[in-house]
Amino acid sequence: MRKYVILGVQGSGKGTQSAMLAGDLDLVHISVGDIFRWHVKNHTKLGAQVRRLVAAGELVGDDLVESVVRDRLQQHDWNYGFIIDGFPRNRRQAEFFLESYDIDGVIHLDLPDEEVRRRVLARRLCSRCGMDYNLIAHRPAEEGRCDVCGGELVSRADDTPDALARRLREHHSKIDPVVELFRRKEYVMTVDARADKATVQRAIRTRFNLPPYLPPQ
């Protein structure tokens, strides 16, 4: 059984790299962001709370994140292990995680702030079906229109320069100490996240002696 944590700033590719690992290694990808998006889409009470925070350009509170992750991990559907994306969010949560789970490693996707701004401000979302696009790496066939349903592509409510600057400040103040704590335990492998997704995936697998990445045919 393998258990990994993946850490990185918004736009560093945590979800993409997690999904690539999970698919090949039969891991369960536990994405805090995906859990919250499900609640927003299904109009739950939690979803309404998250929607208000996102509209204000703020991050979801640490206590709420911790509660959601505890509930998810208690489902114990991860027979071959998991990779968790979006947690821990502070030093206390990191210490809890170390005490509760025998993790195999921490993947730290390192991305400079200027590249984060370039990637995040290029993101678009289909206003009809919710499909994600990025005008740098995943452009639609018709400008401004979703390839799947033809809906209008819009910027996310929280993808503004001011909101992103606030999130970057909060990320560094909270996550940098988490990375340092894991690093002292010799769990951390830092990977340059500026490269394309296949190169990043190969670097992760090399660092952790995992089966080589074979691109889909």
From TrEMBL:
Pfam families: ADK, ADK_lid. Residues 31-60 are annotated as: NMP. Zn(2+) binds at C126, C129, C146, C149. SUPFAM superfamilies: Microbial and mitochondrial ADK, insert 'zinc finger' domain, P-loop containing nucleoside triphosphate hydrolases. Monomer. PANTHER family: NUCLEOTIDE KINASE. Consists of three domains, a large central CORE domain and two small peripheral domains, NMPbind and LID, which undergo movements during catalysis. The LID domain closes over the site of phosphoryl transfer upon ATP binding. Assembling and dissambling the active center during each catalytic cycle provides an effective means to prevent ATP hydrolysis. Some bacteria have evolved a zinc-coordinating structure that stabilizes the LID domain. This is Adenylate kinase.
